[in-house]
Structures are given as C-alpha cells and as structure tokens.
Amino acid sequence: MNENKVKNEKRKRKIEEGIAIFVFLLPGLLLFVGILIAPIAVSVYRSMYDWNGFSEGTFIGFSNYIELFTNGSIKFVNSLKNSLILAFFSVFVQLPLALGLALLLGRREGRKERAFLSIFFMPVLISTVVIGQLWLKIYNPDYGLLNRFLDAVNLGNLKHVWVGDVKTALGSIIVPTVWQYVGYHMLLMYAGVKGVDIDLREAAMLDGATKWQVDKYVVIPIIKPILRVSVIFAVTGSLKTYDLVRILTEGGPFQSTEVPSTLLENMLFLRNRYGMGSTISVMLILLCFAFALLITAAFREKDE
After folding, report:
1. Residue range 123-135, pLDDT digits in tens
2. In a 10 Å sphere around its CB, with 0-12 CB exposed, 13-18 middle and 19+ buried, how is residue 208 labelled?
3. I need a surface site. Which of 44, 101, 223, 249 has the fewest CB within 10 A?
C-alpha cells in the first residue's frame, strides 16, 4: 500500500510539474505561433489563389508558382540572381574582412581594442535609411564624393551616374551592404576569438608557431560554429535584402537591381497581385530554409 501511495504521489508530482511547465511555455508558444507560424500558413494559403486583396479570389493551385518561374515579365529569376550575387560578395568579401578584423582585434587588449570595436560596429547601429541616404550623396553624379574624388586624382573619365546605369547599379548596392555589416559579423567572430583558451595559443607559440599559424590552425577551427552562423546570416540576409535596394535604386534602372523583396512589394502594392506576392514570400522562406540546411551540412562535412 505504501509503495502504491508513493508511486501515485510521484505520478501526481510529475503531472503537476508538466502542467506548470506547459503554463509557463504557453505565452511564448502562442506568440511563436501567432507571429511566425500563422502568417506563414496564411501566405501558403493565399499563394494558391488569384487574389487582388479585395475580392474573394479564385483557387488556382500551384499556378502562381509555375508562373513565377515561367513568366519572363515578372523577372523573379532575375531578382533571385541579384540576391545570389549579393550573397556571393557577402560571403567571399564581407566575411573574410570581418574575420581578419576579428583576429587582429582579438590579439589586442585595452582602450584601443574597444575603440576599434566601436568604430567598426557603428555602421550597424545606424538606420539603413540613413545609410542609404548617405551613399546616395556619395554616388550623386553632380556633387557626390566619389565623382569629386575621381576628379581630384585625375580620373575624371571614370565619373559615372553610379545608381542610374545598369552596369554599375548593382555594384552600387553591394558596396554599402558589405560596408554596413562587416562590423556585425566582426563582433560575432571577435566574441569567438576572445573565447579561445589562452593556454592553447601559448602552447602553439611555444612549439614555434607564428601568430598567423596560431590563427589558422588553432583559432579558426575552434570558431567554426560561429563562422557557420555568420555564413547563414550573410546568405539569408542577402536573400531577404530590401531597404538599401529600395532607397538607392528602387529596383531600377529597368529592374536590373530588383530583388525578391522589392518584387514582392511591387506585386502587392503596384499590381494588386496579392496571390503572387504571397507566392514570392513563400519561396523566400523556402529558399532561406534550404540554404541554411545546405550551409549547415557543408560545415558538418568539413568537420568530419
């Protein structure tokens, strides 16, 4: 009898603990479902309709998805290509710069280290709208700093309408994007570099390793999980990019700098194709998720 009573009490205690855990998790779970899961579900549902945002809409199945890739006038493939070009420069230019800065600052101590951290991180703290307006002034063909600099160094023949030319418009977006977020990734990597055990560094130095060799063979392998996160953030951030493109070029000239997010805005508010806009948003979610899985798998293979 006593054993049964003890078992019943334990079972009752576990049930009470489970209920308490559920009650504490419920607010966060409701927020997660309401803010993330429900909008995605609604977008998937609306992507199956030919809907203008006002009328009831007509169910058309996967026709929007087929049209997205086959209708050349929508230019989704072109917008995706622009995002992938931006992702390429983010991964192979922005992240190496951030890693180099993190490794250099990780060797320093004191006020200079904190000062440089603040300087490099400052662009991240500035509103992207302000960043966009700043670079518009730099690119201005009449009084912009870039064209004036070219004049000053006797390279006036290279002066350009930077954001108004199909050949240079996308590059004009890539430069401020790389510049703005170098500090963000640098700070992530810097935290990892500073977390490396000093004894490992000293042991490698005693074995005759140079500072570069210590970074290459000791520090970088240890901070690989942080590098993986930075690569995922850089790629998915490039796929979702919107604000700088909207401010600098508005997707022009001739849709040459269109990205999926600006195309989504175009479909929703200019063409009143809410079904197609929902389709683009679903594709963005799937692409971000797919790239995150691919990058994680690639890093796992390297570790093995």
Report:
1. 999 999 999 999 9
2. exposed
3. 44
